[in-house]
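Protein of interest.
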Amino acid sequence: VRLPDDRRAIGTKWVHKIKLNEDGTIERFRARLTALGYQQVAGLDYGETFAPVARAKATRVALTIGATEDMEIDGFDVKGAFLRGAIDKAENEVYVKQPKGFEKPGKEDWAWRLRKGMPGAKQAARGWNKEIDSTMCKLWFTPTGADPCLYHIRRPGRKIILVNMHVDDGFLIYDKTDGFAVNIKQKL
């Protein structure tokens, strides 16, 4: 989009990484475009940035419940989590400079307006947290009163199902004989 006159675009940076196998051989090359969040200005480029993370006590309690009830405990990592959370237009729009290699001739003064989060952007974690919270509620989970990142669902005659989220990592505690829990595992 054409950059509005009253706005400025923050920079971007390519981060390259080589993923190795256990034996030291190259598994794959990885490139990720990140926003230079340190260039963002409070009130202009972002508003609220707070996003809760799992508390250590709640994590220990959840793991204790899983161990004492002889339940399955499966960890997971959400790939591209920050790319899934929407940027709240009501707070502020975020513009980033066109990354190297993606500039369009004659449009050097244009920028990218972010609709979703981007690694490095100050509000990316908040957008992701809103997205995962909304998804968990659609799956009938509710956050516990002790920790907003520990979700649970209890159904009559069934063991409790717990999901603990720490940014984009989490674990699911469930009874492996519960078909509903196994279906939830596949969705996460």
Observations:
- The first helix runs from residue 56 to 68.
- Strands lie at 12-20, 26-35, 72-77, 94-97, 111-114, 142-143, 150-153, 161-166, 169-174.
- The mean pLDDT is 89.
